[in-house]
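agent> call fold_tool(seq_1)
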Amino acid sequence: MATALKHLNADEFLLWAEGMDGRWELFDGVPVMMSPERVLHGATKGEVYAALRTAIRRAKLPCRAYPDGVAVRTSAKSTFQPDASVSCGRTPPIDALAIDDPVIVVEVLSPSTASIDHGPKLSGYFSLPSVEHYLILDPERRVVIHHKRGTGDAIETRELTDGVAKLDPPGFEVAVEAMFPPPSA
């Protein structure tokens, strides 16, 4: 179905995708349907969203955590649906399909999307001036790959298996363990 479409810009895509079944992203003007998710992937998305929301409330910051489904436009031709995100500052209208100013973006790694998460999404998210942190969660290894905006165009990367991810700005920490579902017994 996506191959029969003309190239779309981000605004056209958001209106088009709203009426479609399934979840879609826009890569260089071409709509791409997202794959079904495994249980571990979905559980990890829920845990990281809850952990971010709890940390924001504890820090009493004027930020909002969003679960998956809220799009982020990274260019006129690309729109991604991160697994969770955090925005601070102005609150978007309740009928908005995308946020324009995420500070934190999270993707949960899956075998079919690893190269996209580490490639086009990494560069796409950091093309937005508001993005300070891009977290890639590997649920199988229970590792957080924390990409942080550094000085100039530099992006600092750390792998975290325990402790906390320091997300400053906006000014809070999240325990690595809290971003993953409890280990299976």
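agent> call fold_tool(seq_2)
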Amino acid sequence: MTAKTINRVIAGAMGLAAVGAVVVGCSSDKSTAAGAKVSTGGNTAVKVDGSDLAGLDLNSVTCVKQAGKITVASGAVGGQQGLGVVMTDEATPKVQSLGLVYDGSALSVSDNMGVKVGSADVKVDGSTYTISGEASGADMKNPMAGMITKPFTITVSCS
């Protein structure tokens, strides 16, 4: 990957984390504005590289169904860890974009303009969504080392 592609991946993941903070901030009253269905808390779990995503307040994770999309997001804790996922709202959802901050590195899954980064699959059991795969991004502790890839699993209730 080129430096330009790495920068786009980082910017995309950070943008998703920022969107997550906005969604959480706007939905804290748990109302259903403009037909959106909002769920918070529940049986949420976020694991990266086999461990819980440290620093992430699971109670801040919000799931919003609106306009044919499902958005899962969290507020960043201390400006560090965060999560943002956008997927289709259909019988077999597909992840359109995913961004998370892990150990100071912005990791993402996307397939835009022919550039595919990472991978993700979604399994649905009632109102529980399990998103798993591999997210990639730049190692912010050593950006010149190139891309890193980490396995992840996100479980969230979304009614």
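agent> summarizing second result for user.
Residues 3-27+37-157 form one domain. Residues 1-33 have pLDDT under 50 and may be disordered.
agent> awaiting next instruction.
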